[in-house]
Amino acid sequence: MGMSDETEVKKEAAGTGEEEARVGVFVCDCGSNIQGAVRCADVRDFAADLPGVVSAEEGKWICSVDFLNRMKASVQENNLNRVVVACCTPRTHEKLFRKTVAEAGMNPYQLEFVSTREQVSWVHRTNQDVATDKAKDLVKMGVAKARLLEPGEEIRLPVGQKCLIIGGGAAGLTAAAAVASQGYQVYLVEREKELGGLLNKIGTVAPEGDVAAELKATLVDAVKKYDNVTIFTGAKIENIEGYIGNYKVKVSVDGQETEFGADTIIVATGMAEIDCMGQFLYGEDPNVVTQLQLEGMLKDGAVQGKKKNVVFIQCVNSRNEQRGCCTVGCSVSVKNARAIKQADPDANVYVVYRDMITVKEEYVHLKEVMKEGVNFVRYDVEKPPVVQKADGSLAVKVYDVLLGQEVELPADLVVLTTGFCGPEGVSDLRGLLKVSANADNFYQEQHIKLGPLDFAAAGIYLAGSARNPKPMKDVRDEGYGAAMRASIPMTRGFVEAEGIVAKIDHTNCIECGICSKKCPYGAIKLGGEKGKTPQVIEALCKGCGTCAADCPKECIQIVHFTDEQLMAAVDAALEENPEKKVIAFVCHWCAHGAVDIAGVGRMEYPTPVRIVRVMCSARVAQRFVQHALDKGAAGVLVAGCEFPTCHYITGNYECKDRLEKLRKKLDKKGYDTSKVWEVWLSAAMGPKWVATQKEMVKALGLE
Amino acid sequence: MSEAEKESVLIVGGGIAGITAALNVADYGYKAYLLDDTPSIGGLMARLDKTFPTNDCSICIEAPKMYEVKSHENIEIVANADVRKVEAVDGHFKVRVLKRAIFIDEEKCNACGKCVEKCPVTIPDELDARIGGTRKLISVPFPQAVPNMNYVNILCRTGKMRDKGACVGGCVVDCSQCRECGVAMCVKACRDEGKGAVMLWQKDQWLDLKVKSIIVATGVKTAPLEKGTWGLDVYPNVIDYMNFERTMNSGGPTLGEIVRPSDGHHAHKIAWIQCAGRGEKGLNYCSKVCCMVAAKQTIITKEHDPNVECAVFYNNQTCYGKGFDEFYKKASSLGVRYIVGKPFDVTEDPETHNLTIRYEDESTGEIKEEEFEMLVLSTGLVPNERNERLAKVLKIELDHNGFFKEAEPLSKPLETAVPGIYLAGGATGPIDISESVAQATAAGMKAVSKR
Ligand SMILES: Cc1cc2nc3c(=O)[nH]c(=O)nc-3n(C[C@H](O)[C@H](O)[C@H](O)COP(=O)(O)OP(=O)(O)OC[C@H]3O[C@@H](n4cnc5c(N)ncnc54)[C@H](O)[C@@H]3O)c2cc1C
Ligand SMILES: Cc1cc2nc3c(=O)[nH]c(=O)nc-3n(C[C@H](O)[C@H](O)[C@H](O)COP(=O)(O)OP(=O)(O)OC[C@H]3O[C@@H](n4cnc5c(N)ncnc54)[C@H](O)[C@@H]3O)c2cc1C
Ligand code: SF4
Ligand code: SF4
Q1: In Å, how far are A123, A281, B255 from A692, measured between CA atoms?
Q2: Which of A155, B34, B50, B426 is positioned for an S-S bond with B55, CB 3.0–4.6 A?
């Protein structure tokens, strides 16, 4: 299948990197913001003499509309193919300048940003000479890198309009209807003979008491009304391979195989109760049942008026060493206890609990149930309840925390509120989809806060209790949400990567596959004759640089952040007085955010640091650090996002790991490893960045 | 779709729910208007320190989304604006929006801060006042604000600040242009910079939009307490959980040092009272996030200094989400004391400003008391007070608590009684960030779908 980049549409941007570099430098005064601490005219004159520079200009506000027009004119008049701006911060202004030079016909990726405000004038306000020298250094670094910049291109991968949905419970049905309503082809694959999932097994749906069967009928009808939905029930997913826009799926029903292509996938495989065998006499006495069995019994009318004494035991297999709260158990017990009590007001219903977790309005229901006479007995995790059988009858013995004594509750029925796990078969699917799941087989979302419905790999989305147990209402929300996530690339018709992507030169490649294994986005596929040749699917690459830093043969480069470019900046910084300078590799996201906050807060700090920006700390190869030391740097600092945050999932962990190993290696080679520093910053930690600078300067004797 | 026929969606509220909805509908190809009635988007999340259950730094993960909104070709931010009139016509909504003046030329200001230096009037910060936060009458909403520019507090323009040092004379602008209070040092400072972005004479503006759908994402706020409840606003070292969140935050007024408002000294023994806003007169529901917020706050306090004693008075642990129970266990394992019981009385030692809490220990029934150096009240989440007016304008219903009402939560989730108006995030009730994001994505799907 198409492992190569052939399927990718490249939108070639103007300009090429082949011709000789003609650099234009634009130095901003930012009113008195930079000009107040840095002699900007000196910086401009200095820049004009740097190799490759054909024009250098100073502006009061280079981001003003007037000056942007001036910049465009200059690009054209001077035939510039590289631009360096020395001003505020790339985090807010890079896009603006890229757009401007692009309008003038230049390749936008051949712009380099130098931060003379946040990194110089706002933080070194006391000595104009020192500040001006540092600003010159930064511009020199910027120009050195800019001369080597290659043109970038936007990379697009076409995506069609076919969506595979795995799992036909509430989540899958909701998503199927939403995707189908847009006219896209849906393949809904359900393992059971019936659609509906848990909706087939439960009676009513708390908190409103909707009838599950009715809800199921509504959801199924909403899907079946579309011609563009193909439903497979009693079906097994045999195989899935490929990537977004290009999946090949094999499904079998009763031994008959069907193959089709899909562009996106929604995983909605739901959850199952954890087996209680052997606990609380479950499996030994038929009157010990799980919550799900009780739902069935209630539907059949087998409990109401027939079981006088019912005891619910909460948090079975939950909130222990292995896992947390089951999320739905408390409200399910409230629902079912109430059903039993309402059918037979003389019934003795006990809920033996640890904490009653009832959020929002559920709390009101809880209070009502208490009023209606359902009894609640709180137990301590250290003294769990015990189910006993004597003379054929069951009893639950438990230490009641609130009464301060042990009680014995006779029971005709004991209901175990057991925890949940992913259903059977998750391990197989995980392998096919190349996604991860936790120990309970609940899938791992891309980001627990901001990417709950995505997987790390583009093209696969997640909905419902397959992620973690949750009430029906949330399952429905997520079904719509996952449909949206899948619909975006199908509606646009493509996914797109910024020009900053990995490129592999196969000349020295030993086909070890490390790059493919390390890539957090599954962007490197192994193909070729032996299935071992790495290929970057550029549209999926986010440009973190993990692969490039870890490739043992140094075959991989990241556009705009190549070894050569980054080292050119380092060399420029260390050309003069390297023993007085600290090279800092700083990630674009949180660490650079902290640097900027130090600037915005006008926090004064020592001047030796020279920042080389990388997208992710994972880009920092061991050789970079060693190179800077070889060139005589007083110290090297690597700054990345504070754990556990990383914009490339685990880049900072990779980097930290690598630094550990590097220190040992350098130590053996006789380097002074006390020169190698690291700091992990949140984007609010300006003060910590400042403190680190002060500590380093002190420890390295640079004061 | 060509620009002319591009359909639009209006999103009211620029918190994480609004931001997520906007990015989704914009990526889908619709135009999104993201409206907030404050000068910046970001909502509560922009002001939090870390986020449970992973302790990701809040602004670190939200700010990139905020920049993405700012630079997205399909999104227009409408800040400092109110929705004033909405009419349903031919399957669309005609919307009148009042964009209140911020007295700044948005094209020109880049938050350089020269005006802020010169402004003579300092006022208590709206969020951080209790822990000593202040701001100038002209200031950026917060450092990572989007749009990133200064705004002039309306207090400046209503003349109420004269006795606080406003109107010092020597103005560079004509007083008659300047309603009552002609400070104008900001105007001068900005002109001296060569920008001329401060415009104290700026007028409110009306905008007319035509949109296909509306998503209401107006969020939650922390429940206010009556003055004196648990000593709040009487004893300086009693603060609420939002104040504590800001105390932990490097971007807050204490630069992340966990210090007491009374003397600025580090606190060594801190108590949290959970469900502090519930009870007879208070909330009749569980706010869902406070138990996790307390776990987070104690964990971070312990990370700052493991020797700080932390005690949490609670009744039920609400750890209903993925990884939440584990998070609570982590707090316990760090030595945070969890005490089942409800305090009934807080008194202060006027010398030390320490606080004595009297409570009934539920596990023994005993009445006990204990002294703490600082007290944090987890007051709960309540609907935004602006909901009522918005509900009237949109002709949709609020529930009895004041959150927006989903007409049929199960069969038509996130829909209101008016077709085309959808809900997401805290607007629907107490909620955490990940649920807000899921809902906002879902509401986005509905907003672009056929009706
Ligand atoms: C006892 C009990 C009582 C409950 N009561 C309530 C209540 O009162 N109120 C409330 O709001 N919520 C309640 N819930 C929760 C609610 O039922 C669930 O959240 C909801 O049904 C989950 O829907 P789902 O689509 O995510 O998963 P499921 O309903 O589990 O559906 C998943 C589907 O995927 C299929 N599948 C799994 N693996 C594969 C595979 N490899 N290939 C193909 N198909 C596959 C399954 O067969 C199943 O049909 C209750 C849950 C339980 C267990
Ligand atoms: C102290 C504290 C700590 C928390 N910690 C966590 C945590 O660690 N993890 C977690 O998951 N959750 C946490 N939360 C909850 C989290 O803050 C909310 O889930 C989240 O902010 C909800 O996002 P939202 O966008 O719905 O609302 P909000 O963030 O409240 O945003 C709503 C936006 O709408 C605007 N707005 C309101 N009314 C109008 C109107 N009428 N017109 C125009 N605009 C309007 C507001 O100005 C605001 O910008 C915490 C909450 C608190 C109080
Ligand atoms: S740069 Fe990062 S995202 Fe791209 S292929 Fe390498 S590891 Fe994967
Ligand atoms: S890590 Fe380097 S050598 Fe190994 S397969 Fe990838 S490109 Fe080839």
Answers
A1: 14, 60, 16
A2: B50
pLDDT band at B349 (very low <50, low <70, confident <90, very high): very high
Dump the DSSP string for B392-413: HHHT--B-TTSSBPPSBTTTBT
Q: CA of B436 to nearest chain A CA: how many angstroms apart?
A: 9
Spell out the domain ranges in chain A.
17-150, 154-158+497-557, 162-271+422-492, 274-418, 561-703
Q: Which chain B positions have a beta carbon within 8 Å of A484's beta carbon?
A: 24, 28, 441-442, 444-445, 448
Superfamily of domain B223-381: FAD/NAD(P)-binding domain (3.50.50.60)
Q: Indicate which atom in ligand 3 lies nearest the CA of residue A542.
A: 3
Could you tell me which chain A residue has the CA closest to the CA of B410?
Answer: A473
Whether B223-381 and B8-99+205-219+384-449 are alike in CATH topology: the answer is yes
A123-143: per-residue pLDDT in tens?
999 999 999 999 999 999 999
Nearest Cβ partner for B250 among A360, A473, A687: A687
Q: Could you tell me which of A371, A308, A392, A370 has the C-alpha nearest to residue A343? A: A308
Dmax (CA) for chain A in angstroms is 101
**CA-CA distances (angstroms) from residue A196 to A169, A186, A421, A425, B133?**
4, 17, 18, 18, 54
- At residue B111, the pLDDT reads 85
Which residue of chain A has the CA closest to B314? A355
DSSP codes of every residue in A544-556: --HHHHH-TT--E
Inter-chain touch A355–B251, beta carbons under 8 Å: no
With a 6 Å cutoff on the Cβ, whether A419 touches ligand 1 is no
Ligand 3 atom nearest residue A616's Cα? 2
Cross-strand pairs, A414? A288, A311
Q: Name the pLDDT band for B162 (thresholds 50, 70, 90).
A: low
Locate A626 and state its tokens. Answer: 């060693």
Are A503 and A194 a contacting pair, CB within 8 Å? no
ipTM of the complex: 0.92
| pLDDT reading at A147 higher than 60 | yes
- Kindly tell me if the per-residue pLDDT of A4 is higher than 50: no
pLDDT of residue A149: 95
- Residues A271-300, mean pLDDT to the nearest whole number: 96
pLDDT band at A228 (very low <50, low <70, confident <90, very high): very high
Whose tokens are 């409103």? That residue is A208
The ligand with the least distance to the CA atom of A215 is 1
Q: Which two tokens stand for residue A267?
A: 């995983």
Question: In chain B, which residue's Cα lies nearest the Cα of A487?
Answer: B28
Query: Taking the model in full, what pTM does it have?
Result: 0.87
Mean pLDDT in residue range B399-410: 93
Nearest-by-Cβ selection for B60 from A476, A483, A641: A641
b/e string for B160-184 if b means 16 or more Cβ within 10 A? ebeeeebbeeebebeeeebeebbbb
Two structure tokens written together for A165: 């949905």
> How high is the pLDDT of residue B195?
85
Predicted confidence at residue A47, as pLDDT, reads: 98
pLDDT at residue A3 is higher than 60: no
- Domain A162-271+422-492 fold is FAD/NAD(P)-binding domain (3.50.50)
> B194–A60: do the CB atoms touch at under 8 Å?
yes
Q: Are B323 and A483 inside 8 Å of each other by CB?
A: no
Asked whether the predicted pLDDT for residue B180 surpasses 70, the reply is: no
Nearest to B112 by CA among A39, A609, A60: A60
**Is B412 a residue whose pLDDT tops 50?**
yes
CATH architecture entry for A17-150? 3-Layer(aba) Sandwich (3.40)
From 3.50.50.60, 3.60.21.10, 3.40.1500.20, 3.20.20.140, which CATH number describes the A274-418 domain? 3.50.50.60
The domain defined by A561-703 carries CATH number 3.40.50: yes
Q: Please check the confidence at residue A223 and state whether its pLDDT lies above 70.
A: yes
